[in-house]
Fold this protein.
Amino acid sequence: MKPRFLHVEIPAEGGRVRLPGDLCLPEAPKGIVIFAHGSGSSRLSPRNRAVAAALCRAGLATLLFDLLTEREAMDRANVFDIALLARRLVDAIRFVRATPAVAALPIGLFGASTGAGAALVAAAAVPGEVRAVVSRGGRPDLAGDALPHVRAPVLLIVGGADTPVIPLNEAAQARIGPHAELAIVPGAGHLFEEPGTLEEVVRLARSWFLRHLADGEEAERG
């Protein structure tokens, strides 16, 4: 059976803001992954959508949504307001828990660029809700003092040619602790545009989420 695709609206800031999103529902999903896009992007990010499509084919529901309204995104201060973006992710987690088709599923977060920092802050804020985090070309350092409070397993994926970001991820990995792993994709730049590099991101993310979401779900059932 083909996955179902639903357009949704996520209430944020106590219902004062509504954020558009796209929900992919495979048959009998094993978990759900919520995406946090980077600065200057949106739920329409072609790289995030490619990763989401692969995860959905693997049996994981996915939710891509705009972390900011169009008007909010015009203010560059909002684009880099990690606390604001993290609150929006927590709002998306609440939306998932209130949506019958996905309410009981284990939740993972996938963050790109600044979205990775927001994903880690959100994971620290609601540790009982987030089972796994993946960062793609991320700035986990932007999570700051939240890093030691992240309890979920974290995979930091960085391009081998993205040299300014590698040490930032190494430092964040050390602050998170032994449940964080760093994967460097040889030859990849910040956007993973080089041939085969985004496919490697897909392989790594799919493996991480299936291990920590699907296995966790089975353990609960057992």
User: Anything to note?
Assistant: The longest strand covers residues 4-12.
